[in-house]
Amino acid sequence: MRGGRQPDGAIPSTTLVELTWIEKRIEHWIRFGHKVYEQVLDQRHRVVGFAPNTTFAFVRWAANDFGTIISRIDILHTVRDGEPFQTLPFVRPGGDILLKVDRWPKVERVLQAIDTIEALGIDPVDVAPDHWRHVHNRLNAGHEPRPYTRERHHAWLQRSRTEP
Predict the structure, then answer these.
(1) For residue 90, which phi and psi values (nearest 5 degrees)?
(2) pLDDT digit string (tens) for 74-128?
(3) In three state form, how does the secondary structure of the chain look?
(4) From the centroid of its chain, how far is CA 112?
(5) Confidence band (pLDDT; 50, 70, 90) for 2?
(6) Rounded CA separation 74/146 (Å)
(7) pLDDT of residue 49
């Protein structure tokens, strides 16, 4: 993963994410997203991949003997070859970061927002990218984000069908 080439079996242009799970120490996982590639490296490590022009949520949590040292969630939109992107640890090459939140109270609010969207029967992958930016901005400003509704989702789907 840390090298410059794609692992065997990964489709070119795939955005790769390195996941680690060491119970109660380091827990990196995907909250939502449709994987197109997965490679198990060992019991604690694996690499997953996402196709270009898709969205996924990546959660990172770590602790030491004194408690939590990091809790973070990032929602990224994967990019196509040649498109600009932002870098993020454990993600190669990177993506368009729609939401970047740290500290558990804010991370928990994002996870609740995702749960609320799923309760509407909407896959968070299909949510308007602007909504994730809105949630990011409102939480960072200390305000409550507006909920995502079926009406907003329907409007987004209609608009996205007319865009090239």
Answers:
(1) 75, 5
(2) 999 999 988 999 999 999 999 999 999 999 999 999 999 999 999 999 999 999 9
(3) CCCCCCCCCCCCCCEEEEEEEECCCEEEEEEECCEEEEEECCCCEEEEEECCCCEEEEEEEEEECCEEEEEEEEEEECCCCCCCCEEECCEEEEEEEEEEEECHHHHHHHHHHHHHHHHCCCCHHHCCHHHHHHHHHHHHCCCCCCCCCHHHHHHHHHHHHHCC
(4) 15
(5) very low
(6) 19
(7) 97
